[in-house]
Structure formats: C-alpha cells, structure tokens
Amino acid sequence: MKHKVSIVALAIILSVVLSSGTVSANSTETSFFSNDEIINQIEVSLTEGYQEYYNIDHFDITLCDDGTYFVEMTATLKAQSVEELDYYQGAMQYMAENSSGTKTSSKRAESLYNNLLAYIGKEQILNFYITPDIVRSNRTMTCKLLYEDGLGYVSAENIFPPTHDELFNNGYSYMENRSEDNMQRYRAASAPASDDTIFSIVNAVWYSESYTSNPTSCNLHSKCGKLVDTTKYNSNYTHYASTHSDCANFVSQTLYAGGIPTSTTWYAGSSNWIGVANLCSYMLDNGYWKSIDKSALFVGDYMRYTGTGESHIVMITAHDGVSFRYSGHTNDRQNVVTSLSGSKTFYHVIY
User: Fold this and answer.
1) In contact, 69 and 131? CB cutoff 8 Å
2) What is the structure's pLDDT at 185?
3) Most exposed among 92, 117, 121, 294, judged by the fewest C-beta atoms under 10 Å?
4) pLDDT at 91 over 60
5) What is the mean pLDDT of the segment spanning 58-85?
C-alpha cells in the first residue's frame, strides 16, 4: 500500500489543529481538520485493521451530508482456498470430533463450504460508514475514527476482524450451535426454495440487497442527519422513510420474499409488519423464528439492536469467513460491515 504511516504517528500529526482546506468534523468544537488528513487516516486505519486477512486494492471515500464518510474498500481474501480460512477449519474440527454427525449436519457443512467458496479469489467491496470524533486535550485536538455499527458508532477495535484463534472458535461454535438437536428445520443457503413451505435464504438475501443502497444524503429531507434513498425501494410497498422508521417494514418484505406467508395479522402495513417489537414477537410466537446465539449467526439471519432506547432490525446478507455484513433501511445500508458485539439479539428462520 502507498500509506506506510502508522496510526499512532498519524494521530500525532492530526493532533495539530489545521486552519485551511478544511471540513468540519462531528464536534461542537470550532476547530477544523483537513479533509485530506481525515481521508488519509481512514485509509491507514482500515489497512492496518484488515491487511492480515485481505489484499487491499483501493479505497473510494465520499463525505456524506451528515458529516460521516462512506468508504468502499476493494479487497480480496488472502486465503487461496476455503480450507485456509480459520472459520472453516473450526467448523471442520467440530465435524471431526462428531464424525457420527447426521445427514443434516453434513449438508450444513457442504453449504458452508459453498458459501465461503464464492469469495475465494474474488474481488469484493467492504463498505463502512465512519465518523471523525474530535477530542480536545491540553489545547490540542485529536481526531479519532468511529465506525458505524447499526444504530451507533464503535471504536476501530470493535469493528475489525477477530484474531485467527477467535475465527477458528467462531467456526467451531457455528457448527456446534446449529447441530440438529438445536434446530427444527434447516435450509441450505445455496439453493432456492423448492416449494412454498420452505424459506429461501437466497430469495430473501437477493431482495435485501436489491432494494436498498448506501446513500450519502437523504432524498426526502435536507441535512436531516439520516442517509436515505427511497428511489432504490420497491415501489410496490408503502415506505415509512419520511419518519426514518422503515427497518421492520423492509425486513418483513425480505421475509415475504423468502416465503413466509402473510396472515390476517401480518401483512403489509399491519403493526406486526412495520413495528420491530411486534414483528419479532409475531415471528417467534408463530414458529417462524428462533432466537440464536451470535456464534450461530450466518447469512440469512436477522439482527435486532437492543438497549439503545431505539428499535432497529437488519438482515445479515454476507459473510466471507472473516467479516459479517448487513443490509437494511433507515439508515439505508447495503452490505455494510458490522460487529456482533454490543446489545443485539439474533434470529434464525426455521420455517
């Protein structure tokens, strides 16, 4: 990479208050930092955080209307085979220790392999929303980068990939927690539904990725602090983006696209369709979902944010063995990198 400056060195550079060529960061302070300096820090931070697992090609960085930066990092996994991925090695270790596994477990292992194989040797884009946090200390200013994680922002170490050992353990836990005695039904993520009674992860993920985006402004309001582009929505549905509360409405659409049938109490516009708490209760009470531990999370599962005073829910739409990504509405997001830490609840479709 062209940037060889460490994050520590860059933090020292940015501790000097700059006075020209400026862009205001998210701070009540009146001081400013150079846009180029912030962008350079973003590139250095992401490079140092992800170069252990990815060959990084380039960055595309855009300053959004709300003062955040939208980052597209083009990268390729360093692993040249699925077998080299720590996550897969952990999953196979579980299978080796449980060689008498069921046909369902074997099918799940095969599906995991096929999902991860799709990323090997393929260039992919990892998306981030990042905000510069300006901190005053002893007459100096420092710029710390915070990474969006759904409803809030977290420090870099909370969004960067786990260690090799942690990834191995995550893969082991995934297979362990999705053992047959812990599931009612299983649907391979690599195949579409064969009838109307089996949920299709492929169809649901396709829908989730197709009808959202990564906007840099809100096309409904001027400088409202949210990032929304309703032109990417499915026009067959009413949306609630004008009040920035379309997340459950969108998740319901993905569930319907995957095969969950409507009912007299769950249909477009109903309280069970558009409300986060009501939707979760409906899906659990009617046997369409089960709560799972984060170690069992994979593509096609749902993630609800709790403990923030707000309600929010999204769908996990990508996992390459290293990074989880999600898609959702308000704020609109398409395959944005997320962590699994914090106050979150996870659900798996068992229909």
Assistant:
1) yes
2) 44
3) 121
4) yes
5) 97
- Number of CB atoms found within 10 A of residue 291's CB: 12
Each residue of 13-62: pLDDT tens digit? 344 333 333 333 444 443 467 889 999 999 999 999 999 999 999 999 99
| Runs of H (alpha helix) within the chain | 7-14, 35-50, 86-97, 103-117, 156-159, 164-177, 201-210, 247-258, 271-274, 276-285
319: its two tokens? 């996992």
Identity of the amino acid at 321: G
DSSP code for 182? G
Neighbours of 285 (CB within 10 A): 10
Buried b or exposed e, range 215-253, using 16+ CB within 10 angstroms: bbbbeeeeeeebbbbbebbeeebebbbeebbbbbbbbbb
DSSP assignment of 213-239:
---SSBSSSSS-S--B-GGGS-TTS--
- Four-residue CA torsion sign, 159, 204, 124, 39: negative
DSSP percent split of the chain into helix, strand, coil, nearest 5? 35, 25, 40
Look at residues 210, 126, 151, 65 and name the one whose alpha carbon lies nearest to residue 331: 151
What is the value of pTM for the model shown? 0.86
Structure tokens at 166: 């942690």
Q: Do 214 and 64 meet the contact criterion of CB atoms below 8 Å apart?
A: no
**Residues whose CB is less than 8 angstroms from the CB of residue 56 and which lie 6 or more positions away in sequence, other chains included:** 1, 46, 47, 50, 73, 74, 75
In the structure, what pLDDT confidence band is assigned to residue 12 with cuts at 50, 70 and 90?
A: very low
Predicted confidence band of residue 106 (pLDDT cuts 50, 70, 90): confident
d(CA 225, CA 64): 10
Amino acid at 329: H
In the structure, what pLDDT confidence band is assigned to residue 197 with cuts at 50, 70 and 90?
very low
Tokens 């026009």: give the residue: 235
Q: Which amino acid is at 164?
A: H
- Contact 339/232 with Cβ under 8 angstroms? no
Mean pLDDT of 75-98: 95
Q: Is residue 86 a contact partner of residue 164, using CB atoms and an 8 Å limit?
A: yes
Assigned token pair, 289: 């979902």
